[in-house]
Amino acid sequence: MEDVYPSRVKGKPTILERKDPVIHNSTEKDGPLDRNTLQSYEENGYLFLPNLFSKEEVEVLQRELDRNMNENKSVNEPHVVKEAQSDEIRSVFDVHNNDEFFQNLSTHERIVNIAQQLLGSQVYINQSRINFKPGFKGKDFYWHSDFETWHMEDGMPRMRAVSCSIILTDNHDYNGPLLLIPGSHKYYIQCVGETPENHFEQSLKMQNIGVPDHDSINWLLEKGGKIDSATGPAGSVLFFECNTMHGSNSNISPLPRSNVFFVFNSIENKLVDPFANISPRPEFIANRKNIKPISPQSINLTKKTFALS
Asked: For the chain, what is the largest distance between any 2 Cα atoms, rounded to a whole number of angstroms?
């Protein structure tokens, strides 16, 4: 397969124009988003939808998040990622496969219908995780495009995926919220350096390969004009395009920041061999097996027993 988005190059990187559409053959008739919202996503590369989940639903989500984190505190497996300088959990991966509650949540029509509308096809979960940035100790994550990593290390062929972050704690400017550069998804920033085997063992804690150079970030910021901060109440949902440049600061506040993160990929954009000519990353990071399109479900989160309705 031709590599239309080469990266991990030697010498000086190049900024390439995007070769894929942002909205894939969808209109306001194909899902819950109206025309203006679709246009905003196409222009900026992300949507922040406040209070998509109610206060009562958030209470259930927070309870289940705490349960999952407590169950994984003493787990010493690769899918449970700890902070680089402490034993605090940073992320729990593959929750749509190994946790019944979050498996059901990943099929919720409220988020799946939006993903299908943005990607113009049926979708599946390419990656899922719970992110937990504890107060005082939560570390930063440097600027990056998810697609660059997914393309080079997982073999995602084209830019036809969207990340969905369900915010489970109030996001403030001071507790390490996600930062995004508007319009950055329109350009592909090549990165410098070869990719070592098993790079994921380090990159999930602190990414050093596949990060853009300072000049390219400055160029994107001049084009976008600002840096947006994904702040808002628990229950809000952030959708951001797979190539949107984003990162986050350390959390030195007392307040933790947690979210549930689903990556929806088009069923027409399944993974191939990694374009960095390395072994594919493990299944818990990039799903390759038993790929099936999601059937959106109507789910009642507020029942004592979580159930589909």
From this structure: 58
Distances (CA, A) of 155 to 32, 59, 96, 141, 278: 30, 37, 21, 22, 10
**How would residue 69 be classed by pLDDT, with cut points 50, 70 and 90?**
confident
> Which pTM value belongs to this model?
0.92
H helices, E strands: number in the chain: 8, 15
Asked if residue 210 lies in contact with residue 8, where contact means CB atoms within 8 angstroms, the answer is yes
Mean of all residue pLDDT scores within the chain: 90
DSSP 298: -
- Residues 206-239: pLDDT tens digits? 566 788 999 999 999 999 999 999 999 999 999 9
Q: Which helix (H) or strand (E) holds 238?
A: strand 237-241
The candidate with the shortest Cα–Cα distance to 170, out of 70, 64, 46, 55, is 55
Q: Which residues pair with 121 in a beta bridge?
A: none
The CATH number of 15-295 is which of 3.90.320.10, 2.60.120.620, 3.30.360.10, 1.10.760.10?
Answer: 2.60.120.620
Phi, psi of 50 (to 5 degrees): -65, 140
Strand pairing class (299-300; 161-167): unpaired
103: phi then psi, degrees, rounded to nearest 5: -60, -45
**Using an 8 Å Cβ cutoff, are 241 and 162 in contact?**
yes
> How many CB atoms lie under 10 A from the CB of residue 17?
7
For residue 238, which of 183, 173, 167 has the smallest C-alpha distance?
167
The span from the CA of 248 to the CA of 250, in Å, is 7
**Cα dihedral angle (149, 150, 155, 156), rounded to 10 degrees?**
-140
